[in-house]
Amino acid sequence: MESTVMYNLVLLAARPPEWTHERFITWWRGDHAELTRRLPGLRSWRHTEIDAALEPRSEGWDGISVLGFDSPEDLEKALASPEWADAVAQVGDMKGRRIAVMGHEAEMFTA
């Protein structure tokens, strides 16, 4: 049975061209995480370090973050917050790539 759990912001990111994968992950889970953890209304945060692509068209990404909120309104408040502005300012003009999408999570299976 499917149930809605969270409203998520999902970020798929690739490092700046001059950075190594290791440097990017260390920054993302370190300095950048310190700012991200402060987002108002943040209920959960999962980060996956990508170490392999299933197929060639999926190559070139370094990590995925899934930030969980109780509702779209809570995410909107976080995106309008000074804490979000600080995190965006820290990224600055890094020249990495990202895909950012939002939506309702549904737990499909748990063992």
Q: What topology does this entry show?
A:
Blueprint (H helix, E strand, L loop, with lengths): L2 E12 L6 H9 L1 H6 L7 E6 L13 E7 L2 H8 L2 H10 L5 E11 L4
Antiparallel strand pairs: 1-3, 1-4, 2-3
Please characterize this protein's 3D structure.
With 111 residues, this protein is an alpha+beta fold. Helix content is 30%, strand content 32%. The protein is built from 4 helices and 4 strands; from the N terminus they run βααββααβ. The protein has helices at residues 21-29, 31-36, 72-79, 82-91, and strands at 3-14, 44-49, 63-69, 97-107. It has a 4-stranded antiparallel sheet. The longest helix is centred in the last third of the chain and has 10 residues, at 82-91. It is globular.
Quickly describe the structure.
Pfam families: EthD. Residues 17-88 form the EthD domain. The chain is of the alpha+beta class and 111 residues long.
H-E string: EHHEEHHE
Question: What is the strand arrangement across the widest sheet?
Answer: 2-3-1-4
How far do the termini sit from each other?
13 Å
User: How many helices does DSSP assign?
Assistant: 4
Using only C-alpha atoms, the radius of gyration works out to 15 Å
Helicity level: 25-40%
- In round numbers, the mean pLDDT is 93
Q: Report the portion of residues in β strands.
A: 25-35%
Shape: globular
Report low-confidence residues grouped into runs of 5 or more: none
DSSP strand count: 4
Give me the secondary-structure category.
alpha+beta
Main β sheet profile: 4 strands, antiparallel
Organism: Streptomyces rugosispiralis
Protein name: EthD family reductase
Domain EthD: 17-88
InterPro entries: Dimeric_a/b-barrel, EthD_dom
